[in-house]
């Protein structure tokens, strides 16, 4: 009944003493207690007046007593003494209706059955539920049995008897409707809270996923920072120290023009190498921090390898290492020029470090199918031990070792190569054995074939 639901939503006596923060089960008991008390307060005076006018003052006193019980119960609910209100309501009404039905034969013993139902919903304690339910049932049975035995068989106006029963049935239906509405509201509130909890859970899951993502990004950023600091120490400390030593030599000694020119030539070579290392470092750190995306274009492999060889020429000359550029002139690949140059520089630098005086390093490129070039950097160096090779293949770096002229190396430079090649969809392969040199190999797509494919 929507009208009844709206009525209960604003009718204050029903919700008297109920607070918003209360559990739903507690509110349910309060609503039921207040509804029963309201009917005692509302109907007691009416029947009291009727009984007084019809010459039944004793029954009118019973009506006054039930009204007082209802008022007292509502007062106790208002003061937050909810169980006391329920106990007073049930005990007072059971006694009043028992006496009324027994001595005045007005049919009010049927109201004791409502008390049985109310006890089930009003109390959490089993002994209170069972006690009041049994009290109402025994009271009803006692009245009916005594009436059949002829006790208290007082004539009561039939019309009033029927009116009492009609009012009882209306109140009984009303109480049942209250139970239905309260129970429905109770379950709707539970469903609402469940939906709220489900939405909160979804928000928590989203927040947890976001937090996990941020944690991973923070971990990556910290790892990148650690790599950055290590790379600075690894690739820039030694060249800068060499430059300082040369400058100290220029400052503290008298040099001939030929010696000065030789030192200037060496100084420029070291500066070029340091500049190349710095460029590699900046390119890698920017890629780690997602500062830019690689720009793919046609790259001349032979020309790029020649530029890297020029940067490393002085270092290779000091160790009497020859560098051969065997890449054919038609070798054009689709790549990011800066990242690919960093790969060439790092592979060549490592090859020089681990190649003994008088050795050889070569760049090669052959077609591996019509649309792919296989690029290799081959040295005749000391090779890589099996355990170091396993570390390089699995994680991209190995324990730091010294080169043939006590250079530091074999580790972070190769990690940079692997990461840059991954952005090109390629994998760095390594073949080596102690004393047999090393071959670094990777593949890149042919620029012409890639352009044709994109335009088709």
> Strands of the largest sheet, in order across it?
2-4-5-9-8
Radius of gyration: 48 Å
Number of domains: 2
Shape: rod-shaped
Strand content: 5-15%
Q: What string gives the helices and strands in order? A: HHHHHHHHEHEEHEEHEEHEEH
The CATH homologous superfamily of the largest domain corresponds to Histidine kinase-like ATPase, C-terminal domain
Residue share in helix: 55-70%
Main structural class: alpha+beta
CATH architecture of the largest domain: 2-Layer Sandwich
Could you characterize what this model shows?
The protein has 456 residues and is α+β, with helices and mostly antiparallel strands. It folds into two domains: 2-156, no CATH class; 219-455, Histidine kinase-like ATPase, C-terminal domain (Heat Shock Protein 90, 2-Layer Sandwich), CATH 3.30.565. The protein is 68% helix and 10% strand. It contains 13 helices and nine strands. The chain has a five-stranded mixed beta sheet with strand order 2-4-5-9-8. A two-stranded antiparallel sheet has the order 1-3. Strands 6-7 form a two-stranded antiparallel sheet. β4 (360-367) and β5 form a beta hairpin. α2 (24-53) runs parallel beside α4 (82-104), α3 runs antiparallel to α4 (82-104) and α8 packs across α9.
Compose a concise summary of this entry.
This protein has 456 residues and is α+β, with helices and mostly antiparallel strands.
Topology:
Blueprint (H helix, E strand, L loop, with lengths): L1 H9 L13 H30 L3 H22 L3 H23 L6 H12 L3 H23 L9 H95 L4 H32 L8 E4 H18 L3 E4 L6 E4 L1 H17 L6 E8 L4 E8 L6 H10 L5 E2 L5 E2 L2 H12 L5 E4 L5 E8 L1 H9 L1
Parallel strand pairs: 2-4
Antiparallel strand pairs: 1-3, 4-5, 5-9, 6-7, 8-9
